[in-house]
Specification:
Butyryl-CoA Dehydrogenase, subunit A, domain 3, 14 helices, mainly alpha
Amino acid sequence: MANKTQTSTTKPDGKARARVVVQSYKRMTPGSAAEEAMVVQHLPLVRTVVGRLAMNLPSHVDTDDLYSSGLVGLLNAVRHFDPEGGSSFEAYARVRIRGAVFDELRRLDWVPRSIHDKARKVQGAIQEIEQATGETASDEDVACALKLTLDEYQELLDEIKPATFVCLDASPGDDDDTSRHESIADDTQPDPMDCTARREVARLIARRIEKLPEMQRKVLALYYFEDMRLREIAEAFGVTESRICQIHSQAILSIKAYLAQQEKMDETSHLLAHA
């Protein structure tokens, strides 16, 4: 019996992959050797961002594709960063990388529609409670509104976790719209009204975070700004990782509910002004 020739394929390492992505990008938009050097220098940042996100993704999502998207985000950051803008390059690049990765995740459409539907149901309950009371909805409030026990509601938060790890990057009313991280970060858009809208969204998110319960604020700060993994946050607070995921999900959905409510109020004001 004839022997089959074994073909071995090795995936390129980070620097090799970066060179491929950069060269492809440069063919479309020529740049400089200094840009390529800057990209290679910040490869660990891409690996960090993708690695943290990959922990919350199912195994069938190809992290190599996410890494390539993150590299494109990094290159965009290198090309568009303004040192006079007041933020560090790393902070700016992190936002662009996350935005590019989330765009790829949306393209892959890896979160089942049923999960999105359940997340929207929770978000709707939060929005109704907070609109009626003017206070941040607690787990108990939302569980009651959904006619669930507290344990059942927390199980639901675990179930919809995949949707809440990308929802800050989606528009308040449509999970398929442009990345919110990207829209806030991209100050190269020619339309000044776009820049104004992005700044307003960033302001609204910051305002909502200030009103969240202390534990939710801490989890968001440690996860999004201090680069701590959920497991590390759980260890720091002496609770389970599952509980931290639930707190994160509740916080994100509260922010999204707030943005949706603000959008509805803006639309109403616009209609009244033109009535």
